[in-house]
Amino acid sequence: MTSVNFIILQQNNLYLMKNKISIWHEIKSHIIITLAIILSAIGWCVFLIPNQMLGGGVTGLSTIIYWLTGIPTGVMIFVFNAILIFISFKSLGKRFAISTIYSVVVTSVVFYLMQEYFVTLIQEHFGSIPLSDDRLLAALLGSALNGVACGIIFLEGSSTGGTDVIAVMINKYRNVTIGRLSLFINVVVISCSYFVFKDLELLIYSYVGLMVTSYTVDLTMNGSKQSVQMFIFSSQPHEIADRVGEEVHRGVTIIKGTGWYSKKESEIVMVVVRKTESQRVIRIVKQLDPAAFVSVNTVMGVYGKGFEMMKK
Predict the structure, then answer these.
(1) What is the structure's pLDDT at 270?
(2) Cβ–Cβ < 8 Å for 59, 77
(3) Is the per-residue pLDDT at 275 higher than 60?
């Protein structure tokens, strides 16, 4: 075997290894998304919908239609999301849109199965749905489960569709949290429930649930707004810098340094990223140089392009 063929073989093996790692990452991410959707469906189907409480967004509208017509919530969730997913292809990128399509399909299926079979199973074992007749408790538990689930889905680079897509699109260009955006958008949807049930108490509990969901989304995603400063000590600094710039889309700085023990000059890669992006950087480093040394430090604040805006 010639040296040229050997190099080509090594490059092919490296390419296959990178693809395997990338595929496994996507599989793991979608498993997490699926579990989060199941958690959200439990919150809705076990606590919120049986107590005739309404959340916001497409799920809320679908719930209103379910109460009025009996059409399964999952079916209407799928129908309403078609246009918003089409919009997200252009605004939020192909991966986000494809991942959102997956979330919407799974959400529709899980909600349908949960309402048709799981709820019936609970009724057979516990005697009734809802499990709690206390509307406040149901609002707190159901909304908290839904909020945590939505936060996890956002952290995995996806959404459950509906007004979540609108919130993520606005958040991309404006310095407003996703939880707060969802709160403002969904207030209108929840207000519609009053015209259906004429129940002021139900409306108030629905607002309580919406605020709990908004708070738990931001609480779950709190780390996503935090930034970290990473120093990477590697024998392949230029390759790492190129990959970080191309895949994470963050600026990279090369710092000249000297190892005091070895007395050898080296180049240190320094990059500032969101906390949720740090794992992507570490994954790149691991692929290129498993023996690299990486230091990750939380910073108090980062202001400038790609991070927070400087405020007066």
Answers:
(1) 93
(2) yes
(3) yes
How many other CB atoms sit within 10 Å of the CB of residue 105? 16
CA distance 249 to 133: 50
Give the CA-trace dihedral at 148, 152, 158, 159, to 10 degrees. Answer: 0
**Residue 21 is encoded by which pair of tokens?**
């790692």
Q: How is residue 169 written in tokens?
A: 């699109």
pTM of the complete model: 0.61
Lowest mean pLDDT among 49-63, 261-275, 290-304: 49-63
- Are the C-beta atoms of 37 and 106 separated by less than 8 Å? yes
Q: Using alpha carbons only, how large is the chain's radius of gyration in Å?
A: 24
Rounded-to-integer distance, Cα 79 and Cα 73, Å? 10
- Would you tell me how many other CB atoms lie within 10 Å of the CB of residue 2? 7
**Domain spans of the chain?**
15-222, 226-298
What pLDDT digit, counting tens, does each position of 171-229 carry?
666 666 666 777 777 787 788 777 777 788 888 888 888 888 878 887 787 655 678 89
C-alpha 251/C-alpha 241 separation (Å) is 9
What pairing do the DSSP bridges indicate for beta strands 265-274 and 227-233? Answer: antiparallel
CA 227 to each of CA 5, 250, 271, 294, 300: distance values in angstroms, whole numbers, following the listed order:
43, 12, 10, 16, 8
* Distance from C-alpha of 225 to C-alpha of 306, rounded to nearest angstrom: 11
Q: Which two tokens mark 174? A: 């404006």
Give the fold, CATH level 3, of 226-298.
Answer: Alpha-Beta Plaits (3.30.70)
**Which of these, 34, 53, 33, lies nearest to 43 by C-alpha position?**
53
Determine the Cα angle at 51 with ends 49 and 56, to 5°. 50
230: helix, strand or coil: strand
Q: CA 83 from chain center: how many Å? A: 20
Using a 10 angstrom Cβ sphere, with 0-12 exposed, 13-18 middle and 19 or more buried, the burial of residue 140 is middle
